Amino acid sequence: MIRGWVLPALLTAAGVLGAAGLLADGNTVAGVVILLAFVGFAMVNSPLVFPASVGSEEARRRSAADGRPVIYWRPGCRYCRSLRLGLGRDTRRAHWVDIWRDPAAAAAVRAIADGNETVPTVVLPDGQARVDPEVEWVRRRL
To answer: Which residues cross the membrane (predicted)?
Structure first.
């Protein structure tokens, strides 16, 4: 869980340090702009952007029951973020599993992606899987 917050924490710290330096020099507006930019970038790279993650087993159980796909992801992944933002409101129509929080999920992704933890990986209820799919491909399956 902590691993997903390392990048956002570093970005926030960098923004605070950069803003403090500018504020110390009397550049209030530039300091505020830098701080807001870094905090905004930290938010976009945080786990907060994604729906609440469930465990791999729970996601598969729910997928079998409701027919929604399972999307394996990890914090800080730009492709996961791109998929998430591309799906917009449809994001909540899938079950999201953070592979850094669930070792079984990481193992499932490795089994699909030739031993690699490549995300996003989407698994449909019928077992069909795709690594780093196009947004439209996922949207059609939702």
So the answer is: 34-54
**pTM (predicted TM-score):** 0.73
Note whether 36 and 61 are same-domain residues.
Answer: no
User: What distance in Å separates the CA atoms of residue 108 and residue 34, rounded to the nearest whole number?
Assistant: 40
Let me know whether 128 and 87 are in one domain: yes
Task: Say yes or no: 8 and 37 in one domain.
Answer: yes
Could you read off the pLDDT of 97-116 as tens digits, one per residue? 999 989 999 999 999 999 99
- Beta strands at 121-123 and 129-131: parallel, antiparallel or unpaired: antiparallel
